[in-house]
Amino acid sequence: MPRRTLILVAVLAAAVSWPVTAFAGASSEPILAGPWSLDQEGYGHVRPSSIFNGGDPTGLVRHIEWLTWGGPRAVGVGSGFYVAPNQITAEGSRHSVVIVLFKLGTCHGRRAYNAIQWYFPEYGEHFNPHRAGYKICTGA
To answer: Do 79 and 66 form a contact (C-beta atoms < 8 A)?
Structure first.
């Protein structure tokens, strides 16, 4: 997918309006919540350039360029490892990815995005706020 198209898809994902939550006394930029485990990257930081869950390459996004940050959603584009249905991890390959951080709240007393999702528009994937996964502040 051409980079220009990917950025357009990411901007559209960011354009969906969510209510903004006010945080008394929390004027600093939000972090990506966490980390909750060893060998992770990006968690606990503002605007990380890479995010790694630890483990296999499907949990790694590199070269992230953040298009938005600080609002209800942070949206970026980067490079992720795509594994198609019915493929094993070894058959996957790197592709352009859109990453969305959402559920702005707090984590260990700091303003933080408490949910993360990345997807591959090239393969028909899209952002779904109901697929938030586990709580990235605690790993539960």
So the answer is: no
What angle is formed at CA 105 by the lines to CA 62 and CA 37, rounded to 5 degrees?
50
Residue with tokens 């995005």: 113
In terms of Cβ atoms closer than 10 Å to its own Cβ (0-12, 13-18, 19+), residue 9 is buried
Q: Measured at the alpha carbon of residue 60, what is the angle toward residues 54 and 63, in degrees to the nearest 5? A: 135
Is 70 strand, coil or helix? Answer: coil
Q: Is residue 140 part of a domain?
A: no
CA distance 23 to 34: 19
Q: What tens digit of pLDDT does each residue of 7-61 get?
A: 555 545 544 434 433 444 445 899 999 998 889 999 999 999 999 999 999 999 9
Structural domain count of the chain: 1
Tens of pLDDT, residue by residue over 68-100, are 999 999 999 999 999 999 999 999 999 999 999
The parent domain of residue 116 ranges over 3-17+27-123
Report if pTM > 0.90.
no
Q: What does the alpha-carbon distance between residue 139 and residue 133 come to, in Å, rounded to a whole number?
A: 10
For residue 71, count other CB atoms closer than 10 A to its CB.
14
